[in-house]
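Practice set, problem 2.
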Amino acid sequence: MNNYLRAIGFSKTKSLQQLEQLRHEVRINPDHRTIAGKSLRQSVVQLDKSFGDGGIGMSIVGEMNSEGQFFEEHYFPYVAPGNYVFHDELIVEDHPTMNAYLGVIDNVNLSVIFFIQNIAYVNGLLWNDRLPLKMNIALSGLSTEGTILLPQLKTKEERTYELMKRQQEQIHIRNFRAGKMEDFDYFLENDQEQRSIQENRLSSEDILSIVESSIIPFSTESNVFDLIGTIISVNETKNSRSGEEIYLLDIECIYYVIRIAINKKDLMGEPSPGRRFRGITLLQGAVRAE
């Protein structure tokens, strides 16, 4: 997680001593504390501390025993998602290297994996056997390098058609999940059609003039993506401890709106609504039961 500290304004936090000072500040003065049962003698404790407006901060997760002693396990930087909440089926999996969880959204033609921020909350649901299949989900991300791309030139009619097509795809996804296999043919035919169109255009156009949004796995970390999306809104904030300036970008990508935090010095170009963002992004998210 050290690499992503720069996304929330801690690009100069390099040494173990600096990192320990930062974590100590979170431990002794958190803004929010969540405690959930893990066993009869242990609880999961999550400490969250904000370091600026817009929801940038750091979280520490650990265990507390029956005597009230806290033992830190790991930490992670975060940016809180925006107000773009959607309701979908979610698979919750254990994180392979730490006491945390990954959320998996499988939309037939697109699988999105994200790091679940509210770990203690999910642990409480699991401990009480109350984890539902469908949950309210909001996505965010930390980007360490990004570029602003010009918008694609499209008519109002073309954009209306694309919106209707995305809504139609969501209906086919719900039908397929309900067991209607004939809806899977829609995705096969659509993929073949799009592949043919893109192959024809690639002979005379650059790939970035064709792709308006995409989310492609980037590394061995399952929740890191090379992401392209259209900027909906741009806000600026400042890390209250380091003074570094951060962009908060709401990005429309495929079916989702994702709030991305990126250090100003890591973004090439001037962001504004309508332009596109491309960046290497660690995908996070907050989940809630209904």
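Problem 2, part (b): a different protein.
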Amino acid sequence: MIYLYVKTHQTTGLKYLGKTVSKNPHAYKGSGIVWKAHCKKYGYHYDTEIIFQSDNKDEIREKGIHYSQLWNVVESKEWANLKQEECDGGYCANSFTPEANAKRSAKLKGRVITLEHRKKLSEANKGKNWLSVEARKVAADKIRGRKRPQEVTNRAVQTRLKNLVRKEKPIKLPKPVIICPHCGKQGKHTGNMLKYHFDNCEIVVGPRYRKCDQPRRLADKTKKPTSWIITSPNNIQYTVTNMRQFCREHNLNNGSISDVAAGYRKQHKGWTAIAQYDDTYS
């Protein structure tokens, strides 16, 4: 819907004739150069009167020319219009037609922005927060209700569909089963098959150390060691009665040294240990 309106400033009484496609024409501030400068100076305090509305651009143009000539909005000092309202300024329903695009392109050809103009634009935009909630709301109100040509919509849909097409993932083939030529063990080409078979097979390098295969030295679980003889990597022997304190002082793990003393491990960080028992202690 296109609205033809008249805005009257509450302080100065200056009037402005214009049109808008905004859903809320009363909140629309107007786009005239003189009108915007006037409101910027005296404040945006105005009354809005809708004098005609239609979804036909030709009807709006006809009414705009009629009221412009009736009230003499161009020459009268009571109005802020620089030209009669012909529905050719700003956004209209047909603003994106090839004719409109060619007209805008012809106006912009050869345009040169001087350093003075750039400086004025920089000073005008200083201090503005374009990411604030108010700024985003104003920007959204300006473009709300616009209708794009069907060609632009179809092009955007095709671009989105093209971006949404997922690439086909390659099919993951199962890893082949391999067989150790020495012991005949079958398994996948990973993990323990590579670690303990082929060149590292027990048949080639001999039996490997297993904690579960080591016999427990203590036949009677009720017996506890009274002391330990611990040998350092430098062949220094210690007779220890407090295993926890000794491990803290030498940065050792108490459980690992206990496993070495019990026969579950050969060494811990190069340290070896032998547990001593008192037959009278149980």
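Answer key, part (b): Strands lie at 2-9, 15-20, 46-54, 177-179, 186-188, 227-231, 237-240, 272-276. The chain has a mean pLDDT of 82.
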